[in-house]
Amino acid sequence: MRQWWMGKNIYQIYLRSFMDGNHDGIGDIPGVIMKLPYLKSIGIEIIWISPHYDSPMDDYGYDVRDFYRVSSDYGTIDDFKQLITEAHQIGIKVIIDLVLNHTSDEHPWFQAAKDPNHPEHVKYHDYYIWHKPKTDDAGLMQPPTSWIGWFGDRTWTYHPLTDEYYLHIFSKKMPDLNWRNHEMIDDMKRMILWWVAQGVDGFRLDAANHLEKNWEFPEAYPGYEHFSSLPKHHDYLHMLSEEIFKPHDLLILGESGGANKAEALAYVGYHQGSMNMLIQFGHCWADIDPTQPQLGKWSQGVVDVVKIKKSFQTWYQILGHDGWNLIYWHNHDQPRIISHYGSDRRYHARSGKMLAIALYLMPGSCICYQGEEIGMVNVRFRKLEQFRDVEVFTEYDNMRRMGKTKRQALRLLSRRCRDNARTPMQWTHGAYAGFSPVQPWIDMSGRKHTINVQSQSHDPSSILSLYRFLLKLRRSDDNITFGTIEFIDIDHPDSFCYRTVGATCEYLVITNFRNRTISVQLDDIHKFAPVTGSLKRIPPLKNRMVLAPFAAFVYRRTRRRES
Ligand code: NOJ
User: Which of these, 75, 74, 61, 69, lies nearest to 103 by C-alpha position?
Assistant: First the structure.
C-alpha cells in the first residue's frame, strides 16, 4: 500500500551548521525557518533535523539533558512550533532525531542515579547500566570488561560514590539507558508522544540497534557483539511501533549497521517492520586500507567501486518487494562525499555531478545531506584545537599511543573525521559564507568563496542546478522511486552503471567513478534518448562507450505508451 512518505525527497539538516538566525555563530531553528523557501525550491519534501534538545553538547545534541526543552543554542519551543507550522504550510514534513540509547550524564535521571543520597536514587539508578569493579591478579581495580565503544574509548567509567562502573558505548558523558526497566520505557513513551503532540511527522531513531546489552557482561575486546544488534532490541522497537509509530502514521527512519536479511525485514519489512526506512552503512567506507587494520576507518585506501555497487544491490535484493529502500551518500558522521569518493580539487564539479547521477536515479527514497547539493568539501584542519568532535580527541590519543606522530595523527583525523561534514553551510560568497555575521562555532571550509548556493543558483551547469533537476525528476516520475534496479557489469572496477526500470519507462545511468578515462560495454541500448536536465553534451549511446574522468550520463526510453 502506498504510504505518504514513499519516494518523498528527504534533506538532512545538521542544525548547528545550517543557518544562524540569531547571529551568535551557531545554526538554529529560526535559521531553518528562513531557509524553508530554499529547500522547497530545490524539491525537498521532508526535513530531518539533528537533535534540537537541551544538551551540554558533548556530542552536539546526541547527549540529551532534557528531552522536553529546546536547546538555548537552537531557539525556543515557540520557534520549534513555528518551524512545524511554516514547513507544513509549504508542504514540507518535519522529522526529528530521537535519542533512545543514552542520555547526557547531566540529565536529571543520571544525576539521581549516581547520587546515593538523592531521594529517588534507587529508582533512577536502575534507568542505567552499572557494574561492580573487577579485581585483577595484583588486586587492582579493573573495569568489568575490556569493551571498546564507538568513539574508540573504554565503555566503562568508574563512579566513586556508588563504587560502580557505568556503561557508555559512546562518550563517557553519554551513559547508556537500561531498556529492561519498564518505568524508564514509560518515561520515554511519554516523551515521544509529547513531541508527536507538537506536530512532528516522524523520527530518525538514533543508534536504534544498541538498545539491548548482554547482561552477562562477558570479557571481550572490542566486544561490539555484546552491546549492538542483540535480538531483543527488536522487541523494544516493535513495542514503540505498535503503540506509537503506527497509530500516529509517523515516518520512522532507523539507524542500524550490518543488518542481515531477517533483521532488515524486522526493521523495515512492510508487514513485520518496526520502522519504515533503514539507514545502513554498507556503502560508506569503501576505501578502507585492509593492510592497516589497526587504524580501522581512519586508514585510507583506494575506493572499491564494486563494493559500493554491491552494497546497494544487496539492499535492493534483501528488501525486494517486502520493504522500502533508502539511498544516501553520507551524513553528519562521514567525510564529505566529494572528498571521500570523488575529487575535491581538479574535478570538483564533475565528480560532484557524477556522484549525484550515480545515486539519484535509484529507486526508493533519498536523503540529501546539507551542502551535498553544492558540492561542499572536507576541511583541512591542521591543529587539534580546530576540531570539535568528541570522537577526534579519543582517537587522537589512540593514534599517539599507536606511535603516530602529532602530524600523522592530525592528517589521518582531518581526512576522515565527522567535523568535515559539520562545517557551516555555505550560502553566499560574503563573510562567513552568509551562514552568520560572526565567527561560527567551527572553522569554515577554505573553499567557501567558490562553493556556495549564491554562485551556483543561477548557473545552469552547477552542481546545485543538477541536484534541483534530479530532485524534481524524482518527485515527478514514479518510474524512478517505485522502479526496480539492475546493475550493469557490476564487477567492472571503475564504472557505476545501472538501469532503473519503472512501469512506463526505464532510465539508463552510465558513470565513471575514476579520475581517468575508462570504457564500458553496453547491450540493449536501442530507443534510449539522452536526459538532458542541466547536463550538457550527452553523447549518443553506443555499445562501447569511452568515458572521460568522472563522466556521467542519463538516458531514458519508454516501455509502453504513457497515459
Ligand atoms: C549516531 C549519530 O548519527 C552520531 O552522530 C552520534 O554520535 C551517535 N549516534 C550517538 O548518539
Answer: 61
